[in-house]
Amino acid sequence: MPIRIPENLPAQNVLLGENIFTMDSQRAASQDIRPMEVAILNLMPNKIETEVQLLRLLSNTPLQINVDLIRINDLTPKHTPQSHMDAFYHDFSDVVEKRYDGLIVTGAPLALLDYEDVNYWDTMKTILEWANRHVQSTLYLCWAAHAAMYHFHGIQRKLREEKLSGVFRHRVNDPLNELLRGFDSEFYAPHSRYGYIDPADYNSIPGLSVIAESDEAGAYVVASDDKRMVFITGHPEYDPETLNDEYVRDLNADLEPKIPCNYYPDDDPGKPPVVRWRAHGSLLFTNWINYYVYQTTPYDLNQLVEKDQRKR
């Protein structure tokens, strides 16, 4: 089944070229079903690239999904045309009264900033609280996962001296958790971050569990028992070349980055990277949509119950 996205969104042509079915509003209106309402708060600098990555992962499901792209009001992107933002994004203030089955909050390149120093932190806190009242299940990626843990539970991330970059082997801690249904006992996933929270800190929060982790990268998938919050510390959405692009960018900025681990054959950046994470990344998002969103959300979104995720 398709995802419904704004007409003429650039991602549409990319997805159609990959034989991924999308539809516009006119065709979606003829479908006599209740589609899932999913919002994406896109905090990444290159909005268009991230849109393609996330929409690709949302597409592998039999459900029809209406997608709203959300921006923080008055936040001018540095790497995305303003015309694109004006054409395809909703200001948060425009959707503040709307309710959603699912919300995805992306990472952001804010690794070394204190949360309180982020120029939109007050708005971010407002959105986190809004999600408790207006969203059935929220999926936080990378920086957003750590930010949500700080806001709701007061747990501060720690910072590595060197950036964690590469594709790491993970193990499934809870094979019966529906979010990991169909996963191999070991699988790979990309990471690109400085921050981390110890698995023990996640597990210390009543109702939270680390359900997948890595000896090298730490906690990867953390889920609430009520399925209404998922924290993913890596980047299952990354394209094959994303880590390479980041590595080259950091090289050009004279940051002396380490070669991403387990990414290039023989650790040779001149060779095409080995892609070994996309199947499990797709399955993770499909399971989230099916088991954490579709199977739990009320038919009438006005019946959403506020999440109980306050600091304990």
From TrEMBL:
Pathway the protein acts in: Amino-acid biosynthesis; L-methionine biosynthesis via de novo pathway; O-succinyl-L-homoserine from L-homoserine: step 1/1
Residues reported to bind substrate: K163, S192, R249
CDD domains in the record: GATase1_HTS
Any one GO MF annotation of this record: homoserine O-succinyltransferase activity
Site (Important for acyl-CoA specificity): A111
Subcellular location: Cytoplasm
Cited SUPFAM superfamilies: Class I glutamine amidotransferase-like
Enzyme active site: C142, H235, E237
Domain of life, per lineage: Bacteria
Protein's UniProt keywords contain Transferase: yes
Enzyme class: transferase
Pfam families associated with the record: HTS (PF04204)
Family: Belongs to the MetA family.
Name the UniProt record assigns to this protein: Homoserine O-succinyltransferase
Organism: Alteromonas oceani
